[in-house]
Design goal:
The chain is an all-alpha fold. It folds into two domains: 87 residues, Monooxygenase; 34 residues, no CATH class. Helices cover 62% and strands 0% of the residues. The chain contains six helices and no strands. Helix 1 runs parallel beside helix 4, helix 2 runs parallel beside helix 4 and helix 3 packs antiparallel against helix 4.
Length: 143
């Protein structure tokens, strides 16, 4: 029973790439999707398929064969929407966004307070640890 459930779940998970495929076909754009991810994804299924075949495990063979087909189909569509499948130079045809600078995420005040309270940093964004939680305050309390 567990073998059947695991195989059924694996088939569903392997076929989940087809949701992305459908979205790609509807939008006719693939720049938002990582082609490298689907290449690694298909490669992973191919390795597991080879392993399943080498040990004769039908659940692995079934799940991973479906995974290879679905991931490869999605990868093929991603690359074909970017240009020609026969000309790899067209695969990087997505525009690189400009004008947007990448900034580090701001530290929330709660995180800053926690760090300051632990006295890991003497001052975080203008917040000083309280005397009771500072090293001097703890030393005074211990006396």
């Amino acid at each position: 029973m567990l073998t059947f459930l695991a195989t059924a779940y694996g088939v569903g998970a392997a076929g989940a790439a087809l949701f992305q495929t459908r979205q790609l076909l509807e939008s006719r754009r693939s720049c938002e999707v990582s082609a490298r991810f689907f290449a690694v994804y298909a490669g992973g299924y191919a390795i597991w398929l080879a392993y399943g075949a080498s040990i004769g495990s039908m659940p692995l063979i079934i799940v991973d064969a479906i995974g290879v087909v679905c991931a490869t189909a999605t990868l093929t569509i991603v690359l074909s929407l970017r240009g020609s499948l026969l000309h790899p130079s067209t695969w990087n045809s997505c525009p690189i966004p400009t004008g947007r600078s990448r900034r580090a995420a701001p530290v929330s005040q709660g995180v800053a307070l926690a760090v300051a309270a632990l006295d890991l940093l003497p001052e975080v964004a203008g917040i000083r640890p309280s005397r009771a939680l500072s090293s001097e305050g703890l030393a005074a309390t211990a006396r």
